[in-house]
């Protein structure tokens, strides 16, 4: 399959960039901001969120999502006319 | 929508930084996507190159506009658990039907748009009528979206209305005009995750505050809000959403199937998929997150109802304010910025979906066949870009007009949802009954649309649509959703009757002209992609479709026992 697929799209247009790196980048940045904010949250902010360290937890979840997309993009990189689920 | 009662949020520099980062990324997507655009097909259909997980998430995200989020939270507060029907009876079966049965006709024929399918199945007048109503509806709905966005920005951040309208229109303009459909779709996928990140903390903290799911159920005062199918008998309904007939036929069958299977802004996402299998899996993959959205919309609506004093009543916030009000009450800075970003992203994505649907239909279905034929591909690419700019400028205009009429937006939303119901009737007949003639398609569509509009105004004068059957002269207590369901049924029936009647007296197309366009009438080479070898068991469309239906069915039964 990979032998015949190279010619079709190559001369027609340039390939779109890999969306997974973009999602990963945004969520790693957001996750880092949220973790730092969560560690510095004051008692008033904790009380507002009914005692849950919501910034910290959301930050950790966002870092995990960012890493998952980074891993996925690394392990299954884009190939020309890839018929896998990569992106 | 009156969001002002929710009060301005305590946003600080941190929240604005989070917002600014997102906007910078969105502009970057437009600039990056522009490099991949060489032909008009790249611009309008992403060169038909995207994988199923991208188109699937974009499919669901294009629908996850902020009107949908705020609207379903409001439904949760107003109608209670019965609002889950919009998801499990409405959206899910329709999305599965689109993926399993309709996508082969759209994708297999390589049509660019829904109107183009109508041109090939019926005739040019049917095509033109549909293209025109679709284009007008998209621009108006984009304007309503824009106005709603500006209202939220104004009330949450304190920005003036005009500034909010122009800034948000400008951002959408940048990423659609530069990046085309790819720009819109990539932004939609990104936005999907940001919206989840914004909504989940509201639900987590809210449920924690009311003592979990059981605590929420215990604290609902009006116990009819816990009904889903209970008390929905025809003729003596007390269910918040009326009787089961309207729910199943109106919402479940006509409205949802009409919206999901014929709304080009949605179908376009699947048409950009890289092959037939990916196109069919687009709505099926989208169905799985959709099943669980009630947790993120209806549940916060009910949390707002039980925790905010006077919610939805005199002196309290409006139903539409459920999510913004909870954001202000529960979220500390940081998470607040994420939630705000998610909400604004949702508004812009809803508008972007309208804009990208509009520019495609305008270029391929109005300008190309009826105004300027046989020009170069470059020419149509430029027409698409100009159409986007003009379309968004007109939406800005309609947004300012809408701002003069506070509550007209609900009506526009309602009116245009009607265009999908007759269209669905015409589609079903055209697809499954090969005798349906070209002119029957046209007159059925016109009659159905007229019937929908007539029913919309007539419903106010029918006592059955009022609680207890008492016609209220001020029309204030009408069950608007129920009237909407029955309006859809009437539009559908009138369309079918007129189509069949006209078919009886006009000449059908010969079979060879319908090859590939009608069920069981395959074309010679058009649908071969459907038979390409499958690579993984989880890519099986029937498995995905029945899985989604099964989960929705189980959840529908479980929610019956909440009360």
UniProtKB/TrEMBL annotation, chain A:
Q: Does the keyword Transmembrane apply?
A: yes
Q: What is this protein called?
A: Uncharacterized protein
TM region positions = 21-40, 52-73
Instruction: Record the organism.
Output: Actinoallomurus iriomotensis
Q: Which UniProt keywords apply?
A: Membrane, Transmembrane, Transmembrane helix
From TrEMBL, chain B:
Q: Which CDD domains match?
A: SLC5sbd_u2 (cd11478)
Q: What is its main location?
A: membrane
Quote the InterPro entries the UniProt record gives: Na/Glc_symporter_sf, Na/solute_symporter
Q: Tell me where it resides.
A: Membrane
The alphabetized UniProt keywords are:
Membrane, Transmembrane, Transmembrane helix
Is Membrane tagged as a keyword? yes
Lineage: superkingdom: Bacteria
So what family is this one in?
Answer: Belongs to the sodium:solute symporter (SSF) (TC 2.A.21) family.
Name of the protein described by the UniProt record: Sodium:solute symporter
Q: Which organism is it from?
A: Actinoallomurus iriomotensis
């Amino acid at each position: 399959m990979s032998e015949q697929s190279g010619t079709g799209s190559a001369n027609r247009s340039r390939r779109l960039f890999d969306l997974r790196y973009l999602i990963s980048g945004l969520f790693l940045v957001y996750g880092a901001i949220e973790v730092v904010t969560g560690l510095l949250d004051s008692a008033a902010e904790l009380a507002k969120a009914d005692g849950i360290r919501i910034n910290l937890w959301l930050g950790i979840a966002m870092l995990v999502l960012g890493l998952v997309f980074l891993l996925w993009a690394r392990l299954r990189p884009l190939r020309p006319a890839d018929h896998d689920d990569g992106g | 929508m009156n969001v002002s009662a929710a009060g301005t949020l305590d946003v600080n520099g941190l929240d604005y930084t989070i917002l600014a980062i997102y906007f910078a990324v969105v502009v970057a997507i437009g600039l990056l996507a522009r490099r991949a655009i060489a032909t008009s097909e790249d611009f309008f259909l992403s060169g038909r190159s995207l994988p199923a997980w991208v188109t699937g998430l974009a499919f669901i995200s294009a629908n996850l506009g902020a009107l949908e989020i705020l609207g379903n939270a409001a439904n949760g507060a107003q109608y209670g658990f019965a609002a889950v029907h919009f998801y499990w009876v409405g959206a899910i079966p329709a999305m599965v039907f689109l993926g399993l049965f309709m996508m082969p006709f759209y994708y297999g024929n390589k049509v660019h748009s829904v109107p183009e399918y109508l041109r090939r199945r019926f005739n040019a007048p049917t095509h033109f009528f549909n293209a025109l109503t679709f284009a007008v509806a998209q621009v108006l709905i984009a304007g309503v979206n824009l106005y709603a966005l500006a209202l939220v920005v104004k009330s949450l951040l304190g920005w003036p209305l005009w500034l909010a309208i122009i800034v948000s229109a400008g951002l959408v303009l940048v990423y659609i005009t530069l990046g085309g459909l790819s720009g819109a779709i990539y932004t939609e996928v990104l936005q999907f995750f940001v919206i989840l990140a914004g909504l989940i903390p509201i639900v987590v903290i809210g449920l924690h505050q009311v003592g979990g799911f059981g605590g929420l159920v215990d604290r609902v005062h009006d116990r009819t809000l816990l009904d889903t199918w209970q008390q929905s008998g025809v003729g003596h309904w007390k269910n918040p959403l009326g009787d089961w007939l309207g729910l199943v036929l109106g919402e479940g069958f006509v409205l949802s199937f009409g919206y999901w299977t014929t709304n080009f802004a949605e179908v376009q996402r699947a048409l950009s998929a890289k092959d037939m299998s990916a196109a069919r899996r687009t709505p099926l993959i989208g169905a799985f997150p959709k099943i669980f959205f009630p947790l993120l919309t209806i549940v916060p609506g009910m949390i707002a109802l039980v925790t905010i004093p006077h919610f939805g009543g005199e002196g309290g916030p409006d139903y539409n304010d459920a999510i913004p009000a909870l954001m202000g009450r529960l979220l500390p800075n940081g998470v607040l910025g994420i939630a705000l970003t998610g909400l604004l992203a949702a508004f812009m994505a809803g508008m972007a979906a309208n804009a990208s649907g509009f520019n495609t239909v305008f270029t391929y279905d109005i300008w190309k066949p009826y105004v300027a034929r046989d020009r170069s591909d470059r020419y149509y690419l430029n027409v698409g870009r100009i159409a986007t700019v003009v379309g968004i400028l007109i939406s800005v205009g309609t947004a300012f007009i809408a701002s003069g009429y506070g509550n007209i937006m609900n009506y526009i939303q309602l009116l245009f949802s009607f265009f999908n119901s007759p269209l669905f009737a015409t589609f079903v007949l055209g697809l499954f009954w090969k005798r349906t003639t070209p002119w029957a398609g046209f007159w059925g569509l016109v009659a159905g649309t007229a019937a929908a509009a007539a029913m919309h105004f007539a419903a106010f004068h029918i006592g059955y649509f009022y609680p207890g059957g008492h016609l209220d002269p001020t029309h204030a207590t009408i069950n608007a959703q129920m009237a909407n369901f029955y309006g859809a049924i009437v539009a559908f029936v009138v369309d079918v009757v007129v189509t069949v009647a006209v078919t009886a007296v006009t000449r059908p197309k010969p079979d060879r002209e319908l090859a590939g366009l009608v069920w069981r009438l395959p074309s010679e080479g058009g649908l071969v992609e459907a038979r390409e070898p499958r690579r993984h068991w989880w890519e099986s469309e029937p498995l995905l479709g029945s899985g989604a239906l099964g989960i929705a069915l189980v959840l529908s039964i479980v929610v019956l026992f909440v009360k």
